[in-house]
Amino acid sequence: MASSTVTSAQPDRPPQPNLAFRQLRGRRSPAEFAAAVRRAAREIGERVSCDARYVGRVEAGEIRCPNYAYERVFLHMFPGRTLTDLGFAPRSSVRGRRARAAEDALPAHPGRSPLVGGETYGTGEPYETQDPHHPHDPQDPYDTHHNHEESDVLRRAFMTGGATVAAASLGPLGLALDAAAAQRPVRRAGASDAGALEEAVRRIRLLDDRHGADGLYRRAAAPLRAAYALLDAGASRQATADRLYSGAGELAISVGWLAHDSGRFDDARSHYAEALATARMTGDPGLEAHAFCNTAFLARDAGRPREAVRAAQAAQRAARPLGSPRLTSLLALREAGGWAGLADRVGCEQALTRAQTLFERGPSDADPEWMSFYGEAELEALEAQCWSTLGDWPRAARHARRAAELQDPHFTRNIALYSAELADDLARGGRPDEAATAGMRVLDLLDEVQSSRIRTMLAGTARVLLPHRRASGVSAFLERHASLPRTV
């Protein structure tokens, strides 16, 4: 979001859709294309936090010219083409005078944008912030060149600072709410506040994908308080109010998931209920489906399988008008997990068949942004969990192995989760040596991933493997697992 103080070289005008970029995406969903962008970035040593929403913003013409990191990635993906060929405007046509002066004042750093990771400046030109894991940029990604459009509350609450330490540890991540800012009266919210809220949701999800929930949950509660403070202050326009309510609901779900994944089930239930209430108040079927989806998952994990079935069915009813087969597929898998918990094999198999059929219809533009994690790997993993619950260990292990092999490397936490599922299924299925090998892979990832769920699964696997401590590789796994530091 550009600062309102920037003088544009052009008058305001509505964005023009980037049809050239949309054509290059082809039949891939925005989430699948975003994953391809991240892979291409890794190939050339760049770090970008591309997701489905970023792709949507580019295609809608909201980003007329990408930042320098994205430019290098796109030109690597489509060799021989220029930015103009990709449907972008020339950089000189979208940059405001203030940004040019700022760029001239900054020292040159090879391989970095002169604007510290931001989109090129100009009135109405949103910028994409630096990836929070980028090892080079110590500045606050939410305060690029003192973006005055963001309120002080948001700038302090939504991850102020901490861009570099996130790559090494979640401990110092700057999600703490500034007390003085929180108590200060909040002005009526504008579009920039809604944008900052949406960005906070994306950042939290990105960090969870890579590092897991432990250490992040308590810090993520601060942006949620700030979001509801904005709702209490009111918005200047109805469209902004709708975005704020939707963003606050999605943030409540994200914080609820962090609580869920770190074993705080009561907190998670409260956050999901808050999101559901927000969805009902505003008549937002997408948010309602998401809240019920997570409620079903939580109920399954908390040992309430019948509630899981009913919540998943409610989610499917809410999702009906959205027209997303992939979303309905995921919700059918949530229902299958509930049936498995009830030991209803027939009900589980019927839901699994429905999920697979819907998944095969492919992605669509109606798929929600938050579903970027749901691909073939997650489909396999959730089916593995169903067979594991039903006690069919060989079948569960087969699906868990496939999930681990298919998972995008970006989702470090999920790779650890799927490998932990595989280790447990192999151990319970009487294959201790293979279980130990899979368990070792999980241990290798625990320096990067902080998830109570994964640690609990691994502890269960270790207990199952104790009688086989003399088997090949098992003793080494048990010793290394026993040396893990205790978590509080």
Automatic annotation (TrEMBL):
Residues 130-146 have a biased composition (Basic and acidic residues). SUPFAM superfamilies: TPR-like. Gene3D superfamilies: Tetratricopeptide repeat domain. Residues 1-20, 99-146 are annotated as: Disordered. Residues 1-10 have a biased composition (Polar residues). This is Tetratricopeptide repeat protein.
